[in-house]
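BUG: 3D viewer hangs when loading the predicted structure for this chain

Environment: internal workstation, default settings.
Expected: structure renders.
Actual: progress bar stalls at 90%.

Input used:
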Amino acid sequence: MKIKKYFRGSGRVLAFVFVASILWLLFDMAALRLSISDVNSQLLKELVVKERELAKKLVTKGPKLADIDFKHPLEKVRVGFGDGKKPGERLEKKVVEVYRKKWEFNGKVEHEKDVQTQAVAKLQLKEESQMKEAIHLNGLKKENVLNNTNIRNKSIQKKQATETLRLSHTKTTPSVVQEQKLPQQLPQEPKKKQVQALPGIKMLSNATKDTSKAFKAQVQDNKSPANAGLPKKSNNTTLKALQKNKPAKQDAHQTATPTQHHPAKVIQRDETEKKVIDDEDHHQKNDSSVQILAVTSKGNKKSSQKLAHSAFKNPAKLQAPQEEPEKLLNISGVRRSGGVHKVMALDVTHKPRDVHAVGQFGHAAVVPLEKQEESKKRWSEGYFNVFLSEQIPVDRAIPDTRPPACSENLVHDDLPTTSVIFCFVDEVWSTLLRSVHSVLNRSPPHLLKEILLVDDFSTKDYLKEKLDVYMSQFPKVRIIRLKERQGLIRARLAGAAEAKGDVLTFLDSHVECNVGWLEPLLERVYQDRRKVACPVIEVISDKDMSYVLVDNFQRGIFKWPLVFGWSTLPEDYIKKNNMKDSDPIRCPVMAGGLFSIDKKYFYELGSYDPGLDVWGGENMEISFKIWMCGGEIEIIPCSRVGHIFRGENPYRFPKDRQKTVERNLARVAEVWLDEYKEVFYGYGYLHLLDKNVIDVGNLTEQIQLRKKLQCKSFKWYLDNVYPELEAPLVKAEGLVFNVGTRKCLALEKGSLIFETCDLSKQSQHFNYSWVKTLRQNTSCVSPQSTRTGVAMEPCDNTKAHQRWLHKANKILPEHLIGEVSFRGVSQRLCLEAGPKANSVFLKACESSNSFQKWQFTHYYAQ
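Structure tokens produced before the viewer hung:
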């Protein structure tokens, strides 16, 4: 009874709370025990990771790739215009050291094998001891732990084999098999696309887990610690076994590896060459995370087999990547839709680079004293130092000048492919080759569809059969030869017509593409097909061939009369938009030589105006067309390309060069500038208005194209794209005040009179145009045949007698000077008001005559 009394009312509640607390405490203790177990497991994982890193450090000799930093500041050169100097005269500054001291392998292969074996053995012993401690801490069953140990050991051995295989690629190794891990969890695709390999590289595209026995035996054999990283003696047998599974059809571009130079595109291979080919199950859906590259080399000096373009960077010879090699390149080239990856900092080459070569790593080269005379004589071959260019390797390394954030940028896996188009005529051999090699070595293979070399009827012998022979070793390079001189513009159109890539990338034939140059360009086109992407054009000195960095935030602009130049974005604009040095920059006008554009969009815009001759003005034409017809032009700071800027143009023109460029610019002005074309003509091109002097050709097709595309006006372009440009439609306007009479000129019933000045009267408003006419609406003040009289005529810009000089010189700055022709004799006379303000006539000019002095209300330009 007493106990029941305590369980009545509130006592019952307290008892329930007490029991619940006991149960909660028991559950809490159980959860704490599980948490401790998880923590111990996590600690164990961290220990395993640390041991793996330690093992890798023991295996790898010399500093890590990540420790080799080539990004040192360069002396900046501002490339601008308006200073009156030629581009070459602004590049006298020396480049600061950009590369740290390189390191090389000094040990032998045998010594490396011992170090690798010891490291793997030490790793296994430590892991076993750690797992035993884990058993004691977590109370796990012994057999489960041993199973986990075996699985982990196999995984570690596999990764160790991968790492050591990569490190064994040295000069002393005759044949290398490199193993690369793809990113995990690749989305499966219904069709596997094969991509052209670089010369000398055979690719296994997504080999399945159920591969041939020979392949399994080779990988399993390489897993053993004693053989890790070394080529097997039985590789030849293994490779022969793999050859039985060769697919029935293969792309010739994928398999071709030349052993000798020959102009034919079908290249024979050495019978003894070792091959690794796709296994017959490579089309199955089960994707493997392992890929194999077979790289061969021969000792025969007469027909030596060159090393393949390595997919990884040799730390002793090449520029170090900013990422681990297996993360840089998806060698299979399969585009994974929807995924992203970091920009690939590729820089492969067909042979180890000589770190001591002239001009290597973008350093300035020096002409020896005994060769200076020869260097001077050869300058005119390309209007740069041709002698030094020939001393520099055609595949030299250059400094990575991208902003730091660029290496971390993400781009889509399924970027479009591109055709790179080089147009050239009598280009210097070494610079042409260096341009091509820079594209091959630093472009992801699966994105580089082809390289088209368009020969615009060159006359140099070395650009004929010799060029065919040299380029035959690169399956992706095609040469298109024009039967007669067409000029840059039509040569580009010929190249675009032959292109097979999704994107057209035009480059000059004297450039060097930097690491990571291509993907940022294609990414912008991928995001919006109406975007035209341009790289930052850096400088290769025409004097010492050094690679020079330019200032950040540079963009292409023009000044009147359509003269291209570079300008830095204003500081307030950069701050207002919170711009970083890696952000794309809106560009009013592209330089024209280097850009990427969607192929279909290029033709939708009408491509280049085919009426433009040879060279000049094409960058203006396509820039106005892109902006005014719905597109955008951007400079991509994460894409960098070096370019040789020359003081003179070495190319010959079928006609007079100046007349050719002037004609092209006049054609652009007539189609795209609307009423602002008078501004163009007023800056020194008034003679182009005379159709007897120059014929710009038929413009009907281009005008109709603009209407069809529903392009905006040039005023819209000035307001929205390039508002910084000063472009007043007239030089002066308002009332025309005569100093002598103190009255203003007026137009009444077609006749000129004088009235008291009144701004509210439209009859007193005149303007002084860029083509030097004095007009009101469509009527212009014109001298009469009587020599002394003036009258109003319909304005015609082609008529020279309607032009008046005003503010033209310091002697007669306020006079209106006209040119009158009488009986074949031209004479300049000044407009004068009658003393009683009752007439206007022409008279010989007098600097002190106030009746010959006129002033406009507003002046916009001198």
